[in-house]
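Batch job 17 of 40 flagged for manual review because the log was empty.
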Amino acid sequence: MSRVPVAVIAGILGFLLYVAAAVALADVVLPHHWSLHVLYFAVAGVAWVWPASQLMYWAARK
């Protein structure tokens, strides 16, 4: 079986789970100071990049 379809399905499901977790955790952060909001959303906005890149490298390997 080709790795690309597996990576696409895993990537979409993983991203949806990541977004759900980030939104749920944002509810915990919202009552706090605005500077914590900035830090949280900056980290949450880029934290998905490393796992996604590893998944793409895995799918492209022969």
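Reviewer: the log was empty due to a logging misconfiguration, but the result itself is present. Residues 3-60 form one domain. Unflagging and moving on to job 18.
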